Amino acid sequence: MKKKVFSLLLVLVLLLMVLAGCGQPTDVQEESGGDAGETNGKEPYQISVIVKATDSDYWQTLIAGAKAAEKDLNGKVVVTPDGPPSETDIDKQVSILENVISTQPDAICIASSSSDATVPAVEDAMSKGIPVITIDNQLNTDNYTSFLATDHRIAAAEAAKAMVKDWEQMNIDPSGKKVIVISSIAGSKVNTDRDEGFIEKITELVPDIVVLETQYADNDISKALSIAESTIAANPDLIGIFADNNHMGVGVAKALEETGKYTDIVCYAFDTNEDEINALKNGILRGLVVQNPFGMGYDGVMYAVDAIEGREVQKDIIIDATIVTKENMEEPEIHKLLYPLE
Asked: Does 230 lie in the same domain as 202?
């Protein structure tokens, strides 16, 4: 009798153990599902980074910064870069943005070529709960998550001040002499702010200087070269050129080198690439207005993650630019700005 009772108890214990074992995977799956739900069911986060142009070293550096953030986040995000071939391909950038939104990424970082054309798509993304981090160019809407950029007016004004100091050192009297702005594209708030910031400051510092009509080169290096050459030939009293992005800087540097006028004409250019750096080293360009695209790409992704996870993100973030010259370009901090991928 005792053996029979013991056998029944043993069978009962074994049965309970089997039932408990069968139930365990369901509990684990439910817990995993809950954890995944805290990130909207998506691991890793999908973050799209859309730049103004893929043909520019500047925007490739921004992408490199975004990819560095991806690496530092150890598999938490996947950064997918995209953009049109040129900054003038505004319709193409709008189409890219609309296509990205249709894939429902977790966040978007965009440097918009236009202040207006991308606004409907950006507002559409925001209405769908997709955080949008805007970089470089401010949009004509407040419906975005965060905006990271240089104060382009202030930065360009610093270039004007540096140009006037160069004239003083060269014993050039700027009164009645001429300067010109060669701009990459009309209608972009970034370029407008740069151009107006330079002109406002240069005319404040030298009230009787002659500012020639701004010329636009469609973000084309060869067009910038042609404009600079014809302007130099037609204006023997030209003493200054402001080039408002890296492609304009490269074109103007080529013109100054080919004409040999870099000893008489002071040129400051926005942004940086290898050709501009070499022109600076060789004394053809007097200075560069250097931003931090690597840092903006990196921070843009980090702010996107903060927004995805519900943390507060600062609405507008201003990043300082730096005037780089032949004299300071080897300083460690300046060198890091010029060569962020080293």
From this structure: yes
